[in-house]
Amino acid sequence: MRKHLLALLLISVFVQAQTRSNDYSDVNVTIYWGEGCPFCGEALKHVETLKNKYSGINVGTYEVYHNESNQNRFLEQAGKLNVSQPGVPFTLYCDTYLQGFNFESAQLMQARIENHCQKKNKKTPIKMPFLGKINPRGLSLPTLTILIAAVDGFNPCAMWMLCFLLALLVASRDRKKMIIIGSAFILSSAAAYYLYMLAWLKVFQLIGFITFTRTIVGLMVFIYGAVKMIGAVTEDEQIIRIPESLRKRVYSQMRDVTRAVTWPAAILGAVILAFTVNLVELLCTAGFPALYTKILEENSLAPPVYHAYLLLYNIVYMWDDVAVFVLAVLTLSSKKMQKVDGRFMNFVAGAVLMLFGFLFISNPQLLVIH
Prior knowledge:
The protein is an alpha+beta fold and 370 residues long. The protein has 15 helices and 6 strands. The two termini are 45 Å apart.
């Protein structure tokens, strides 16, 4: 009964706020185009994508090559904007215009429309119960990446696994073995987590045009965070944990890796072990990858930039594992993780997830940090 009351209390505290409307009826986009124009087709496709993604957006399209009335309208608009050599495609939006079409300008257009054409919203925080004013837009995207990845890195499921492997390696008293097997395990874990996050990103890119995707992700992240906090407060170890049967299999696999006779077998075993561990940890780690990759998708970045941010995230995510590993190699000792440590990590992680889940539901524009 206590757990149910606590769950209701947490949800009622964090969900109390006015939800900002996702209606974009205050946004107007007008595009002048010409039949046979090579870039007009791309511009029209982009505007259609924006229309599907942002509910209520007002779009007007005017063909100017074969319609004298539209052509006169276009020249009049261009004259008001002091455009000396107007050409198509020519897109009017948010009290500005885009002549021609390229990737960077298209992304800037989307970012402005995402913010309802209001520059002032970039610095407008929202008020959260107990936490005061919160404004992620006061942070740069790299800073937000580092902060979320750092909190994600303190994952008790992953830390327990690493500590157990290091304990087995320390028992061998072989520093060279620790370095080789430990390094292979940590690098492979980072690669596995990178691929896992990339998969999340691809999913959101495929379904990003669905307007209620944000609400679904927000609810999922919020509830996941609430469950983590409930487990930490009530000391219930059965909430979001690796099943005991899977944990025993992984422990057995770890022992096999540390007993490998040849280096190739040991390294290959460590790589397979890392991917196995990341697979069985999915239940413990689902929240932050979904949260962060959705934030990336909302910011509409170039493909190489997505990968750069995922790489930065994973470097920061692994820093605590690297620190524990280096300390174990230098001292030939390992510290057993205590239950209170895991509870504290889960409490902090749950609070952060609930905060960002709340933002996705109440004010998702704050998470577009261009």
